[in-house]
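Subject: Sanity check before I submit

Could someone independently write out the structure tokens for this chain? I want to compare against mine line by line before I put it in a report. The sequence has 276 residues.
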Amino acid sequence: MTVSSVIYVAETQSRADALLKGCVYSWFVLALCGQWLFAVYIMARYGSPLLSGDYQSVNQGNHIGGYKPGEGFYNLVYFGHILPVVLLGLGGILQFVPQIRQKMPRLHRWNGRMFMTLGLSGAITGLYLTWGAGNRLSDLGAIGITLNGLLIPVAIFFAWRYAIARNFSAHKRWAVHSFLLVNGVWSFRLYLYGWFVLNQGPNGNSSKLDGPMDLFFSFACYLLPMAVAELVFWAERQRSAAVKWTVAGLMLLGCLITLGGIAAIGFVSWVPAIRA
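---
Independent answer below. Compare away.
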């Protein structure tokens, strides 16, 4: 191989690396915008009524369960499940900002502990609300989100274990999976509303969220992003520029889907609730 060929291959690999990294960062920027918008929505939809004492108003619109007068323990778990989403949405995505990890390691560690603690709490309270309190539309439709809740402690355990062992490469991998699992319900909303807008209404959906597309999205909302994340980790280790370009294209498609989902649910649900 000539010197010029070596230089060409090196430059091609460098461009492929930059493209892959750019697509990944673009997705995280979109996720940050969507997460923060969701956090503002949660505060407007649930935080304000709780602070004002108007608990009944949280039951406006489509709701599974909701506030139940006179049921103190249930309501404590209910609001304890929903309101931490604000902190998870505002702080979770910051764990992946390189400047924060490098220049503010203490903030990174404490923010990570907060995310892990609230993520575990959200999984436990979510499982209780679904199966203990009966906040589900159907047993079949609840299977996907139940598996999501069961996987969250597993991913968080490994993220914590590898952080303690200072195996930061493995820690990053499991931290990404923890983030994707904790935000599974958020992704489900994006996929579902994006699907509704694309079809101009339900298509393969049911009122109990157990239609074929409902079931698909209930699993895909976390399994699909996790699979793509594994592809990205794999592509980063490869020398082939073609592999990196292919996975970068997949990430670009993921960006478009995420953007479409945020726009769909944002205009249909979140923004109107915030303005109200």
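---
OP: Matches mine. For the report I'm noting this point. The mean pLDDT is 89.
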